[in-house]
Amino acid sequence: MRPRNLDELIGQSHLTVPGSPLRQMIEGDQPMTILLWGPPGTGKTTIASLISAHTDRRFVEVSAVSAGVKEVREVIAGARRVLAQGGRETVLFVDEVHRFSKAQQDALLPGVENRWVSLIAATTENPHFSVISPLLSRSLLLTLQSLTDSEIGEIVDRALVDERGLSGEFEMSEEARDHLVRLAGGDGRRALTYLEAAAGATRSQHKTVIDVGDAALAVDKAAVRYDRQGDQHYDVISAFIKSMRGSDVDAALHYLARMIEAGEDPRFIARRMMILASEDIGLADPSALQTAVAAAQAVAMIGFPEARLTLAQAVITLSLAPKSNAVIKAIDAAQADVHAGLIGAVPPALRDAHYSGAKTLGHGHDYKYAHNDPRGVAPQQHAPDVIADREYYEPGALGAEAALGERLKRIRAVLKGKPEPS
After folding, report:
1. pLDDT tens for residues 267-284?
2. pLDDT exceeds cutoff 70 at 78
């Protein structure tokens, strides 16, 4: 069912409009270096095959899974010889280029820079992280999008009737079609695989209509697009944290479920929740950090699948807790002053007075022991003179922190020897 021309390509309409670089390369035979970046099953290999079929150039394919520097250099050397002899230009297609090491990607540069080959490289990972800068800067980056449900449905409908597909042997119920489209997860190749399996189940029962039962036999679990080393890893965990920060417990549970189904390390999830407990909740609910730490310890002890319950409990607790970013603002402000050089001497009263001769230096002199004051706080300057008037911690107005704010006003007044607020 691979498209035979650009007009048969389903999806990626932003890449196939008249005058687009892709059409120029296919229809105008223009030499260029292209990086195709997109999820699996969105048309990267198809586009490479279209370029192969519709240009008057040699087409050589190299898989980054099996090829090494030697093979890459041999291909480029061969392309250079053909050019020198007045022969055709060469299109070099490198599938899964992100699997190439830096040295292997370096080997592509002479061929690209000298136009000995027109390079087409395909990757499912963000090329800004997985492709070396010299190669990236010499390439035109084309981003492919996951196919929409309607586009997946169009692929399924075409495969049902096309002579290269099922040739009209079967009809498909709307319910079965919707089931298959939903579980394909935007992956056209996966949709065709599922359709073929469903058709096989229908054929074995001597039926001519693929129903939802046949589709369920083909696949019973949705495709979860998630790469633990790539964008999805970072995008989903980012959405997970931001959902809890935004108190959207349902969205947070959704992203947790996605990570669980994709096999994410539960310890990583728990670590991020411990960070959130201090960064986004803090003293608005002091028990949040205790919950997150307890969850991390439990996860380390029990692992999946049971750890999903512990993680879910913690997610619900943290999502619904009152929020405050006062902790991170306080330490950021304190560190900013230190970075700016505001590092004064420790006040003499607070210096260590236990060693011989310390008192002759004035260490510990006039130190006020807080427990001797009935308020539990004694008027005293603890900070260096250079930051004596700084107030880094500003309590929020939610949860337990609201009460802390009132207490802090009184403490600061006593420390500075001022009347306590009424």
Report:
1. 889 999 999 999 999 999
2. yes
Q: Does 153 score more than 60 pLDDT?
A: yes
Question: Which tokens sit at 183?
Answer: 């579980």
- The amino acid at residue 227 is D
Rounded distance, CA 219 to CA 305, Å?
21
Provide the strand spans (E) within 124-188.
140-143, 171-172
Share of the chain above pLDDT 70, in %: 93
List of E strands, 75-212: 90-95, 117-123, 140-143, 171-172, 209-210
CB-based contact 218:198 (threshold 8 Å): yes
Distance between CA atoms of residues 58 and 46, nearest Å: 17
Query: Rounded to whole angstroms, how far apart are CA atoms 284 and 278?
Result: 10
Catalogue all structural domains in the chain, each as residue range(s) with its CATH number. 6-143 (3.40.50.300), 149-218 (1.10.8.60), 244-320 (1.20.272.10), 339-415 (1.10.3710.10)
Of 316, 328, 325, 309, the residue nearest 247 (C-alpha): 316
Tokens 């046949």 found at: 214
In the chain, the N- to C-terminal Cα span, in Å, equals 80
The residue type at 210: I
User: 104-145: per-residue pLDDT in tens?
Assistant: 898 899 888 888 888 889 988 888 888 999 999 888 899 998
In angstroms, the CA 342 to CA 386 distance is 6
Model confidence pTM above 0.70: no
Q: Where are the alpha helices (DSSP H) in 205-284?
A: 212-218, 231-245, 249-261, 266-276
Q: Token digits for 227?
A: 């790469």
CA distances (Å), 391 to each of 79, 83, 104, 329, 331, in order? 69, 72, 55, 11, 11
Could you tell me the CA-to-CA distances from 171 to 146, 158, 160, 193, 412 in Å, in that order? 26, 12, 7, 17, 78
Phi, then psi, of 69 in degrees rounded to 5: -60, -40
